[in-house]
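Example record

The entry below shows one chain as it appears in the dataset: sequence first, then structure tokens.
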Amino acid sequence: MFFLLAGIITGFFSGFFGIGGGTILVPILLYGGMSLKVAIGISVMQMMITSLFGSYLNYKKGLLQINDGVYIGIGGSLGAFFSGYVVELLPEKVLGLMFLSILAFAILRFFYAPHTSNQPEIHNKFLFVIIGFVVGLIAISVGVGGAVMITPILVGILHYDLKKAVSLSLFFVVFSSTSGFISMSYHHLIDYKLGLLVAVFSLIGTFIGIRTYHTINPKSHKKQLLLWYILIFVLSLVKLV
């Protein structure tokens, strides 16, 4: 029952906020008594499956810009490929601090970003690859897909509208989590049975979350996303530090 609820809850917020689900699932598994490294492995497998499903739903709605997403995704795949080495070498306290740092960055950057930009979007293929690489390396190493960083960057720096940024960020997770899954599998860091169990149930939540996200206005969506970042940061801080 614990993993069923964890999957559905993670899937819903993954679809609703356009995130991989690691910022949700990792704290849930930690509070369920798992070690950080086991939680990270399960999270990466769950993200790989649900982000692919969620991106397909966003594409059908016409909100996913494939071209930009591919270049960011390529960078994310390259960075995430080295995540297994990072998880294997670094102690859990360091990984925990990296996780908290990502959330802090997202909260600060997202707070000052407008939900709808009146400036032209920046499209630079080389910049997309660099951003993807850095985010993929750091994010997958701590069990998150990277959308928690990509969304604030797209909205606050590259001037994307929030709904486009959310869809593109979830698409990025397809690349980063798949590469991270391969890397962590090589290093024997994934519990396949639990990962698949959580992922299957999270598909239900993802479907509901995507449908809900498409009906809400961007201003309200931004406020809810910001509040979620703050909540996860506080809960993770209490548990890890």
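Notes for this example: Residues 36-60 form the longest helix (25 residues). The mean pLDDT is 82.
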